[in-house]
Amino acid sequence: MEMLENSAVYLFVLFGGYVLKRLGVFDADDARTLSKIIMKITLPAAILKGFAGVDLTVYLVRIAVMTVVLNAALLGAGVLFSRRRSSGERGLCVLNSNTFNCGNFAMPFLSNVVSAESFAGVCMFDMANAVFTFGPNMALAQKVMGSADGKITVKSVLRRMFREPTWVVYCVLIVTMLLNISMPDFVLQVANLAGNANSFLGMLCIGILFEIHLPKNDVGLIAGILARRYFICGLFACYAYFFLPVPAEMARTTAIVLMAPIANCAAIISVENGCDGTAAAVVNSMSMVISIVCMVLMLVLLPMPIR
After folding, report:
1. What is the C-alpha to C-alpha distance for residues 62 and 239, in angstroms, rounded to an integer?
2. How far is CA 57 from the centre of its chain?
3. CA neighbor of 240 nearest in space, from 201, 194, 298
4. Which end of the chain is more exposed for a tag (fewer CB within 10 A), N or C?
5. Dihedral pair phi/psi, residue 262, rounded to 5°
6. Which positions ≥6 away from 227 have C-beta within 8 Å?
7. What domains are defined for the chain?
8. How many other C-beta atoms lie within 10 A of the C-beta of residue 204?
9. pTM of the complete model
């Protein structure tokens, strides 16, 4: 019952953001501002708050390894099934195959309903995904599109990743875990204050951004991208729930986060690489609808696995 109530609250805030946009109270510029606040302030604070006091265990390493395998499988499927399409469509398939909206969606959605250990698993999942989002994804997309511009190197990938406060926080937390260093109480108090706003702002931002204008010419392309993504993620969710050797709640939480929507930045990266911006936006919004349904149902109905 508590899970249902929490889900209802999140969906109410999301729906409220959409209604306020339709009424003209908010617009896309407001959503971009909120997104910056989330990604640069409240999300890093929520991660710091959630990770505090958690040890770097073999369970977190197992989640990271599974995430790498998942990303490789999704990326491979995007390349394989788009081989007969145009260069722009191939790029769209690759760039929207394996990104996950953890910062603005999964983390706000799960942060107040799972334990600190399980939330750390979500953070580890997000950290492994970030490596692919800013590295192999763009490099492979440019290759299949035949683009000669913007060569991606390890240096350029690392430079881009370390501009993101979220990634910096992840690295700092990993180092403190390895060295067994405790965060100062003052830092944790600030993180707790800012992190508490992350769930509300995340759901509000998603509601403002939500929009679907389905282009008829791209229906098959969009359906294919989403079908492949959720089929593969569903298989990995079954593996995580039944077989991943981690504690029961962490296995359940991992299975749920595997159904998270495509990251918002995927649409921006798609446009930057010469793909159809309208199709990318629709893929993102459709993914959000599917993920809301899947994650709410799993959160409410999925029991703890037997371990």
Report:
1. 12
2. 22
3. 298
4. N
5. -65, 140
6. none
7. 2-301 (1.20.1530.20)
8. 24
9. 0.80
